């Protein structure tokens, strides 16, 4: 897997991702402490609002940013967004009112909503070979999982010698280092093949996404992953600290079990995907999550909740979660031309977070109002529905490209470029933006 780091451009981009993630993790810890300082017993409400603002920014800003990502040099765009994030992190230690936190978080997450999909869309241009790109996706998944482990540990060590406000300076350093690493390499910046209006650019990514069968299936699997993931991320604290009555370290180990499952899947997936196609791997991961959640619900009814069972369940959910999410970049890569990838990755970013915007509050409400068994059952049913929809929408025989002929087009048609017969990403819908003019 690590052989992809031999590519200097990718190595610098991966390092930029890692340092930015570490900075983000420090900010997460510091935000919780800042919220408690400003709001006291209402800190949970403040943090809930912060996470809602984050999701709203992701869902609303990403498609707009993706529409304009290919209008400017990609490297300059990414560096500018990193610098915006660094500037916001620098302001956070000086806030004195809760509304100031909300404004700064919206700016920060809006910049992230523009940065992340554009960054993700750049990787397949840097690593055009699918096998190498698959390994890069697994490394990216590992980076996210390690951030969940390393950042809290690092924050704990730093808090022994500095105040929590100083953690925001660590966040600023992380974003500034990310900007420097991106600036140190040359990045491809594919240009649109034809001029488009604002509406076309803004909606293009979502139109391509929803017109592509494999991506409609991916959206359904995103809902399955969000349902299972929300059960883990939202309700683990209630299960461990409330139902089981264990301490904070037990909560850390419980979340670590989920992260460990995700990391192991990310390590295994490159070899698996060399021989098995994406669809059975992703659907199999989703089925594993559903069966595990249902088994845990049954275990609670029959025997009560025990911590080893919870650890094992979250480990298996982590395996399935990574199996669903890690290959998604491969589907996006093969579903659009290079100049459309920022818009398509932005659409995936927005739509997947829209799923979380549904499952986060649903998970918490079910746990509070009806208890763990009902929460597990309803979220498992939602994830199962996502699997059924994915199986219906995503064709079994899903080729990477579909050969088609341009023999009947006039010689000056812009899509010919001297070729009468070539391949486009496999889209079967006649209204797909790439096909509408020549099907």
**What is the helix content?**
over 70%
Radius of gyration: 22 Å
Q: Helix tally?
A: 14
- Major β-sheet, in short? 2 strands, antiparallel
Q: Helix/strand-derived class?
A: mainly alpha
List keywords for this structure.
439 residues, single chain, disordered C terminus, two-stranded antiparallel ribbon, mainly alpha, 2 strands
Q: Topology, please?
A:
Layout: H1 8-39, H2 43-68, H3 74-91, H4 98-126, H5 130-159, H6 165-183, H7 198-211, H8 213-243, H9 248-275, H10 278-303, H11 307-325, H12 328-333, H13 341-370, H14 372-393, E1 401-405, E2 421-425
Antiparallel strand pairs: 1-2
Structure description:
By secondary structure, this protein is mostly helical. Helix content is 75%, strand content 2%. Strands 1-2 form a two-stranded antiparallel ribbon. Helix 2 packs antiparallel against helix 13, helix 8 (213-243) runs antiparallel to helix 9 and helix 10 packs antiparallel against helix 14 (372-393).
